[in-house]
Inverse folding.
């Protein structure tokens, strides 16, 4: 009985303590800043070359991650002590990603770079890898602070979402009706982008958020959802869509309905199809989601392999590109499903 | 005639997939690097266990001449519910398991009732239920919830003196299922109804209860498989079950059962599930390009079906 | 004699079943107009038809296969594959378009032919065979596209299909309707079409009467593959996306539409008209769910309920007559 009371009050305490931490996005951000600056001792991850790099891709069916992987390969090519790269693809299936990481461990890889389908689902198996002395680096996902992940080379979706929201709402002069087009529900990207938007909205009381939709990074789906929204709402002033490949779908729907003039598009990212649209219509711009997170991840991995001290988080910053600057980044002859990047030409995907 | 063939030929035909499994293991031992560590062999089993459990339930359904496509999403729903409920607390283990089996049984019962009442093709019925269950999961949550109790994780990943706990669970389940199917009246009725529903009814079997029972078993097996998957993932991931139902059907058919019903057995189904897990594992260890892996899996499915055809089927 | 009687009877049965789904569609449309007065505006109706075109075109092919008594689950994979092939072959040049379209249709037909060979030559169930082939085709698409959406589409290609005739009907929608018309007439009135009904309803009698079942099977599955390829072109035109998984999940929408329309798994009944009604019902229901402001996930539930309820209603009607 006493033990039960103890447990219950401990739980109650944790719940109460957690509430203020979660109540304000700012405090979360401060916590993240503090956590990412923590250092990790990497002696137990140090290995003798040649190195075998394991990459556990949560999915490879998306051009961003394909570019990210190319960045990893490119960075690896600059270091002769890396002998080979083993890549596994979980195809959006977290259970498979658990199995993939187990298989990479069986193959005695020296370090594991990964991007998750779901962070929590692979935590136990990543912990196993770390305990066996294999450094685990989250590459291109969100910031992860857990015993299973040694370090994260991440892009901050909260900051990105905030930048996109601010630019959109300023362009709208603080007044109007908008809807949000978000990635796959439940992903860090979707959760953080929406949280950032809602946070920024607090300072713009005359903006109304009509709906938050999930286009799943799928251009066709984003277009279909927008067509339906156009049917439902007779007037839409703006669209919050940080993901360029969905932004084009949204913009096309507006164009085909003859309502492109009533709407202001938010900045997207450096997805080439979106850049082409921005170059043509001179509005929107981009807040980048750099694919070179792959290179940063590989660099952090190498530091760990050399036993050098490593921080828990390395932020790959997003920058804002105004519509006027877009011309420098758009590649008119490349497919839409392409990303503006710093990759040398022979390392780009074929 | 089939009966004139020597006993070892008949057994070989019927248990063909088990032979395939043994050959595959030997082949992998020889040809696949890093395969033959104790750790990896155990991994193959833990990676296949959930599918094996799910496929056992699917075997019952298919033997009965039906099919159950809703089990994948049902598994996902149960994973989410049980992890959300348990919230990582070890003392909630029994309750969580009961809940998993209970939800599975209830869903199976509803499927069974609808099947008996509406009399539409089970493929359509369970496909509709698949969609409904998927919607329910996402209405409940759009992100990972909760945490599996540590016992789940141990069942899914732990070892007992080197042998994976999941292997023990799977073996016990297979043995029980096999006994039920071959030695009990209900089991034999399932095969009878699957073989020829009209004849079974004329013989006095209550086909409606038998089909109902098969669906309940399918639901319960989804609950058990969900326990293992929740243990693997440690958290309630909403999409955890997507695609599992097709994998289960593939395992059953690979194991020699006929989709029309009446023939098949659980031992072969489980062997087929392990073969599928072994193939995934071997392809990863052989560092076959991930894109090629999907193609290879498809070709293997087709090849295995062609080789392992049910015998004596009218076209 | 006997076969002529059977065809007449199955034609009548099919007509009754077909009418049932149109009644359901009418009810849905009425419900839609109550929900929102924008519903019946031709522009939006044109939108709905355009949204369903890729699945609809593929569903016509699957109708043929199912009347024969088979099933084709690989259509989703073929649609994705076709979209990638078309985009890559087009490579941004307008003069490549005819070649790209032809190559895509051919690719679809070849996959269909492979399916047909597997089904005709083995006794295994087409359900599992086409499931396996869908995996294989997805793998091929992944390899061919390298994970990204390869290929560059010309704007002319998309503008042609998205152009609205009379400001209302998108060319793509018209394409679907024309294909449905041609397909429906062929299925019901051609000798080939009638042989499908025969084989589906009584395979043994069909074999005895000397019909070249294997050849017909090959042709039918190839047709399904070809139409799925056409569906891929439609998807590319509508969405501009040629990624690996663009068609994923469509095979279930297609299946639902065909069954809703009265074509059964056993074969021998049903038709393209019913399929058209079925796919309209599905997509109108989605559209209505959006209009009612329902969560996307509620749409999944609605899809499931519609599938189950319509099939049950069908069964009930079938027993009544």
């Amino acid at each position: 009985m006493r033990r039960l009371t103890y447990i219950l009050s401990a739980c109650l305490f944790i719940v109460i303590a957690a509430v203020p931490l979660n109540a304000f996005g700012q405090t979360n951000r401060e916590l993240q800043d503090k956590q990412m600056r923590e250092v990790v001792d990497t002696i137990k991850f140090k290995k003798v070359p040649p190195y075998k790099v394991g990459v556990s891709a949560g999915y490879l069916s998306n051009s961003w991650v394909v570019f990210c992987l190319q960045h990893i390969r490119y960075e690896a090519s600059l270091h002769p002590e890396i002998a080979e790269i083993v890549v596994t693809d979980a195809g959006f299936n977290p259970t498979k990603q658990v199995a993939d990481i187990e298989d990479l461990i069986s193959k005695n890889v020296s370090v594991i770079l990964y991007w998750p389908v779901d962070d929590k689902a692979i935590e136990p198996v990543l912990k196993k890898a770390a305990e066996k002395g294999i450094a685990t680096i989250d590459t291109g996902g969100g910031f992860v602070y857990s015993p299973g992940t040694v370090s994260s080379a991440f892009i901050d979706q909260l900051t990105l979402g905030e930048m996109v929201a601010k630019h959109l709402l300023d362009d709208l002069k603080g007044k109007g009706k908008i809807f949000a087009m978000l990635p796959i529900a439940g992903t860090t990207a979707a959760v953080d982008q929406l949280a950032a938007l809602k946070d920024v909205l607090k300072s713009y009381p005359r903006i109304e958020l009509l709906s938050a939709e999930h286009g799943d990074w799928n251009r066709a789906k984003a277009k279909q959802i927008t067509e339906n929204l156009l049917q439902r709402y007779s007037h839409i002033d703006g669209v919050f869509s940080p993901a360029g490949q969905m932004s084009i779908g949204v913009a096309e729907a507006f164009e085909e309905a003859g309502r492109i003039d009533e709407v202001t598009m938010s900045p997207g990212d450096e997805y080439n199809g979106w850049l082409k649209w921005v170059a043509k219509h001179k509005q929107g711009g981009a807040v980048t989601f750099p694919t070179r997170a792959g290179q940063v991840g590989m660099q952090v991995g190498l530091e760990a392999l050399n036993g050098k001290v490593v921080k828990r988080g390395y932020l790959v910053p997003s920058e804002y590109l105004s519509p006027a600057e877009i011309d420098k980044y758009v590649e008119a002859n490349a497919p839409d499903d392409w990303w503006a990047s710093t990759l040398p030409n022979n390392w780009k995907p074929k | 005639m089939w009966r004139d063939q020597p006993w070892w030929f008949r057994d070989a035909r019927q248990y063909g997939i088990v032979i395939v499994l043994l050959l595959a293991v030997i082949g992998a031992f020889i040809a696949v690097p890093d395969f033959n560590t104790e750790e990896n062999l155990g991994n193959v089993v833990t990676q296949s266990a959930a599918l094996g459990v799910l496929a056992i339930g699917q075997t019952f359904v298919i033997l009965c001449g039906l099919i159950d496509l809703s089990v994948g999403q049902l598994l996902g729903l149960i994973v989410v519910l049980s992890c959300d409920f348990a919230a990582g607390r070890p003392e909630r283990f029994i309750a969580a398991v009961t809940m998993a089996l209970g939800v599975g049984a209830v869903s199976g019962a509803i499927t069974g009732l609808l099947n008996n009442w509406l009399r539409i093709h089970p493929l359509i019925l369970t496909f509709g239920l698949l969609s409904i269950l998927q919607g329910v999961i996402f209405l409940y949550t759009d992100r990972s919830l909760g945490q599996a109790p540590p016992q789940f994780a141990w069942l899914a990943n732990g070892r007992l003196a080197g042998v994976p706990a999941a292997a023990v669970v799977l073996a016990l389940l297979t043995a029980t299922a096999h006994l039920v199917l071959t030695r009990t009246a209900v089991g034999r009725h399932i095969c009878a109804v699957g073989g020829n529903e009209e004849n079974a009814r004329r013989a006095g079997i209550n086909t409606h209860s038998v089909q109902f029972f098969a669906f309940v078993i399918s639901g319960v097996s989804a609950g058990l498989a969900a326990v293992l998957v929740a243990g693997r993932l440690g958290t309630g991931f909403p999409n955890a079950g997507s695609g599992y139902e097709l994998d289960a059907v593939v395992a059953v058919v690979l194991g020699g059962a006929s989709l029309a019903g009446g023939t098949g057995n659980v031992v072969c189904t489980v062997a087929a599930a392990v073969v599928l897990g072994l193939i995934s594992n071997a392809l990863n260890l052989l560092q076959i390009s991930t894109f090629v892996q999907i193609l290879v899996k498809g070709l293997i499915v087709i090849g295995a079906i062609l080789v392992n055809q049910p015998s004596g089927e009218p076209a | 004699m006997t076969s002529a009687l059977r065809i007449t009877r199955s034609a009548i049965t099919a007509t009754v079943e077909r009418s049932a789904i149109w009644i359901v569609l009418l009810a849905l449309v009425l419900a839609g107009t109550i929900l929102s007065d924008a519903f019946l505006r031709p522009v939006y109706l044109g939108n709905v038809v355009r949204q369903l075109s890729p699945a609809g075109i593929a569903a016509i092919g699957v109708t043929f296969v199912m009347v024969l008594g088979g099933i084709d689950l690989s259509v989703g994979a073929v649609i994705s594959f076709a979209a990638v092939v078309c985009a890559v072959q087009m490579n941004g040049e307008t003069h490549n378009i005819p070649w790209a379209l032809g190559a895509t249709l051919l690719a679809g037909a070849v996959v269909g032919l492979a399916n047909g060979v597997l089904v005709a030559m083995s006794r295994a169930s087409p359900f599992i065979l086409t499931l396996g082939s869908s995996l294989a085709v997805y793998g091929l698409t992944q390899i061919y596209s390298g994970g990204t959406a390869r290929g560059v589409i010309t704007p002319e290609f998309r503008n042609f299909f998205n152009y609205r005739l009379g400001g209302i009907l998108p060319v793509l929608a018209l394409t679907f309707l024309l294909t449905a018309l041609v397909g429906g007439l062929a299925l019901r009135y051609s000798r080939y079409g009638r042989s499908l009904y025969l084989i589906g309803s009584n395979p043994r009698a069909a074999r005895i009467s000397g019909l070249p079942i294997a050849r017909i099977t090959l042709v039918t599955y190839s047709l399904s593959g070809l139409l799925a390829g056409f569906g891929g072109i439609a998807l590319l035109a509508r969405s501009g996306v040629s990624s690996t998984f663009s068609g994923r999940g469509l095979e279930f929408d297609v299946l639902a539409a065909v069954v809703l329309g009265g074509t059964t798994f056993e074969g021998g009944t049903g038709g393209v008209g019913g399929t058209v009604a079925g796919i309209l019902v599905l997509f109108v229901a989605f559209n209505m769910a959006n209009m009612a402001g329902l969560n996307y996930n509620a749409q999944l539930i609605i899809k499931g309920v519609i599938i189950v309820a319509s099939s049950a209603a069908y069964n009930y009607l079938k027993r009544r007559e």
Notes: Chain B touches chain A at residues 33-34, 37, 39-40, 43, 47, 50, 138, 141-144, 147, 153, 157, 229, 232-235, 237-240, 242-243, 280-281, 284-285, 287, 289-291, 293-294 (CB under 8 Å). Residues 311-315 of chain B have pLDDT under 50 and may be disordered. The longest helix of chain B spans residues 207-233. The longest strand of chain B covers residues 159-160.
